[in-house]
Each structure stands twice: as C-alpha cells, then as structure tokens.
Amino acid sequence: MKSSFKLSLAPFLLLFFFKCKVPPAEAPIFQHELADGATPWSHVEFDEDSANFTFAIITDLTGGEREGVFNTAVVQLNLLRPELVMSVGDLIEGDTENRDQLTKEWDSFDNRASKLIAPLFRVGGNHDLMNVEMRKVWSDRYGPKYYYFLYKDVLFLVLDSEDFKEEKLQEIYVARKEAMAIIRGEKEGVFEETEYAKMKESQTGEISVKQSDYFRYVIASNPDVRWTFVFLHKPVWKREDEGGMAKIEAALGDRSYTLFNGHIHSFSYTEKNERDYTILGTTGGFQKPGDENAFDHISLITMTNEGPNVAHVKMDGILDKSGSIPNGTIE
What we know:
By secondary structure, the chain is of the alpha/beta class. The chain folds into two domains: 53-164 and 205-317, Purple Acid Phosphatase, chain A, domain 2 (4-Layer Sandwich); 167-204, no CATH class. It has ten helices and eleven strands. The protein has helices at 2-20, 69-80, 99-113, 126-129, 132-142, 166-183, 195-198, 201-204, 209-221, 246-252; strands at residues 53-58, 84-87, 120-121, 147-151, 154-158, 227-232, 257-261, 268-272, 275-279, 297-304, 307-314. The strands form two sheets. It has a six-stranded mixed sheet with strand order 4-5-6-7-9-8, with no helix packed on it. The longest helix has 19 residues, at 2-20. Residues 1-7 have low confidence and may be disordered.
C-alpha cells in the first residue's frame, strides 16, 4: 500500500518540475571566442533597435512608361527587403474615360506590383486621377484617395493632389488632351503656348478645404509620434493660395516631418520650413533628354530614434548576386 502511494504521486511531482522549470536564457546576438585583449572588430554596438525600420519609395513610372523599368524595380526591391513600399503617383498611363481601358491598366499594374514581398501603399497622381471616371475607378478598387496610417509610431500622410471640383477637373482634362495631341504630333502647335501648359494646376495640383480639414484633424489627433512623412504627387506645397497646403503645413507646426512628391520627373531637393522637401525622379516614367536629374531610382528611408536616414539609390547600381542588374521579367 505504501509503495502504491509513492507511484501515484510521481506524475504530479514530474508535472510540477516541468511547470517550474526556468526557460533557458536567450543566447546573445554576438558571440566570439576571445576572452580579452585586442579584437579585430571596431566595436560591438550593433544597430538592433526593434523600433528602427526601413521603407522604400517608388516614383513616377508612367507619363510615357519605358518598358521593363518598373518590373526591374520590383525585383530590386525584393532584394533590398524594405518593410513597406510607398509611391508618389502616376502608376498607370490613364488619360482616358474608358472604364474598360482603365481596368486593364490597373490590372496590369496590380499584377506587377503583387510580386513585391513588402506591401505597397498607393498614392494617386494626375495620370491616375485626372478625370471623374478615373477617380470613380480608383474609389471602386482602392477606396479613399487620401488617407493616413501609423507604423511603429510613425505617422504616414497620403495626400490627393488632384482634389479639384468636378468642373475644374474636366476643364483641366480637356485642356491636357489637346496639349498631349500636340506633343504626339497629332495636332499642330507649341505645347508651351497651350492652355494646359499655362495652368498652374497642371504643375502644382490642388488640395480641397475638406481634405485640409481632414489632415488637420489627423495631425492634431497624433501629436506625439516619432516622425511624420507626407506623400503626394504634385508639389502642391509650391502654391501660396487657398488651393495649396499651407493649412496642413501650419498644422504640422514645429513637429519633425519630411515630404516627398513626384510629377516633375526630375530630382530636386528643397528645404522649406527647415524641413526636407524632395521631388523624386522616375522609376520608369518619361525622362526629358539632357536633364541630368532625370534618372531612375528607388528611395530607401531608414527610420531611427534620431530621425530618418534617406538614401536615393539609382537603379543601375542595384545588382544581384551575379553582379548584374536583375532581370525584371514578370509574367
């Protein structure tokens, strides 16, 4: 009887032992065999902060897309492995009110972009949102044309620089079609003398009062983020009137922020309000001959506790393991 009692208690003792067992200590990230003395490495302060992250930006790939460039960028981004990929608009050629054609173009872009390992965040440009039908197609497929999100306590603001009233939007669209006909040689004339070329909206876009109010609320609701990034297509920040983004900039106030836009297809950097404002080049879009700042690139931004480190990397310098520019073939 005594022996039987001891045997029945054993499973409980075993269970108690496993429940109380202390898990093994996590192994250090860096191990070596040297006990003391000189070492062949400079230091062991590794950049391992879990709050740090890297994201990428692709810029204009249309407005005369050059075949294969964006596809190559997708492969290169997968080599670089950012945590997310932003854009700054002009993702399709657009320039039509034909819904079937717009669907075909968006299907093509989405198929290629789906090969990205990281999630892609779309930003609308004039080639994506230049008429009422195009804006409806965007809304049906992707929802809001302007929005925000937070990632690792960093605020991302995505603006719609084509936020015109419908009548004005149609006026710009008609004027642009006539100007493009001259560029394509379908109509006689000088582009610089066209109504479209003289429109300030063709270069700087517009932000509606409703959109400004939305972002003022978003900014006020997120006062203590680590950093704020602003993405849009046209450089609306160059407008000083009601259609610009002065109210959004005022709401940003003295917080730390960085702005990126596209549209010009030529890289430039400006300091405004003691902040970085960058107009990106291209990731496959038309390049003006002779413009030394018109180059294909991917931007890599690494967010640190001290702020963002920004690197603009030309695509012809991103090579695969064989030392070659990757084959951008996407089926």
